[in-house]
């Protein structure tokens, strides 16, 4: 392998650094202006704040009712991940281990459902949810996330389970373990890398989702962080100091979660590829 540092590698690195800085520009504007008074935002948008205005965050925190919207987002995200992991891992296991044509058809149906645009089904979805009393309900939206997230989650579990030796399960069955016990005692613990990966990916999607909660959670008491931030911007559009601080408050929990867990994404993906 040629490890010589060439001009081509140098050019690619410089290009990557410039591209990365360009992606960070919007974050710079949001962070810097969220720490300025309103008058300073109007006069010097691009400059660093002269004095750090942390009062913006305190006022936005109170007006956003952050504890309430944070708990709503947390409950929905955690509950959705639990049902996705439980049901999709079992479904993927049965689809892999059941060597029948119908299993392939069901699996391909789940995969094909991933490419259906949400906008094409949101009207019949809301009509159906209304008839089933699932609107303005946290558990109603959790059920919907189970439906929309099953395709990708089953797809990831399906590929990982195929790498688990069947001999482990056969040995457990010989020892008297039931099929249900085989999955939860033998197979599921081996799925930890891909489980962590699916939880992280689904958490990023569910936590940031705006369209589905805006259609289902019409009660202000059930608003998630993206919904609350949207309505906050509508109310305080002319007060950019508060609006940008509110936007940062909504982003911070997700950034902390992502940076704390990003190594598990790489670990889960590489474990799956090795298997």
Would you give an account of this structure?
The structure is a single chain. With 275 residues, the chain is an all-alpha fold. It has 2 domains: 7-55, no CATH class; 56-274, MetI-like (MetI-like fold). 77% of the residues lie in helices and 0% in strands. It contains 13 helices and no strands. It has helices spanning 7-34, 38-43, 55-63, 66-97, 101-113, 122-131, 138-161, 166-174, 179-190, 192-208, 211-216, 225-235, 240-274. Helix 1 (7-34) runs antiparallel to helix 13, helix 3 (55-63) packs across helix 13 and helix 4 (66-97) packs across helix 10 (192-208). The model has no long low-confidence stretch (mean pLDDT 85).
Keywords:
single chain, 275 residues, mainly alpha, MetI-like fold, 13 helices, globular
The amount of helix comes to over 70%
- What's the CATH architecture of the largest domain? Orthogonal Bundle
Distance between the termini: 25 Å
Note the total helix count.
13
**SSE order, as H and E?**
HHHHHHHHHHHHH
The counted number of beta strands is 0
Structural class: mainly alpha
CATH class of the largest domain: Mainly Alpha
Using the coordinates shown, work out and report the CATH topology of the largest domain: MetI-like fold
What is the CATH superfamily classification of the largest domain? MetI-like
């Amino acid at each position: 392998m040629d490890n010589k540092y060439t001009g081509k590698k140098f050019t690619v690195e410089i290009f990557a650094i410039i591209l990365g800085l360009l992606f960070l520009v919007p974050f710079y504007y949001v962070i810097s202006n969220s720490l300025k008074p309103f008058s300073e935002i109007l006069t010097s948008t691009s400059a660093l704040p002269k004095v750090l205005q942390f009062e913006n965050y305190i006022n936005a925190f109170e007006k956003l009712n952050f504890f309430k919207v944070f708990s709503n987002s947390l409950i929905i995200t955690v509950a959705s991940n639990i049902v996705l992991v439980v049901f999709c891992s079992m479904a993927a296991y049965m689809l892999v281990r059941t060597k029948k044509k119908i299993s392939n058809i069901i699996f391909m149906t789940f995969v094909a459902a991933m490419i259906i645009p949400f906008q094409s089904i949101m009207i019949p979805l809301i009509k159906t949810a209304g008839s089933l009393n699932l609107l303005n309900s946290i558990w109603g939206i959790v059920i919907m996330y189970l439906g929309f997230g099953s395709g990708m989650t089953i797809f990831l579990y399906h590929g990982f389970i195929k790498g688990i030796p069947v001999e482990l399960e056969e040995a457990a069955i010989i020892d008297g373990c039931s099929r249900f016990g085989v999955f939860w005692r033998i197979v599921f613990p081996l799925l930890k890398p891909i489980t962590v990966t699916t939880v992280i990916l689904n958490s990023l999607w569910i936590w940031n989702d705006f369209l589905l909660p805006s259609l289902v959670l019409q009660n202000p008491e059930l608003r998630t962080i993206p919904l609350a931030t949207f309505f906050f911007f509508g109310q305080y559009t002319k007060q950019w100091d508060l609006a940008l601080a509110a936007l940062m408050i909504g982003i911070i929990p997700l950034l902390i979660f992502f940076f704390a867990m990003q190594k598990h994404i790489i670990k889960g993906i590489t474990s799956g590829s090795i298997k």
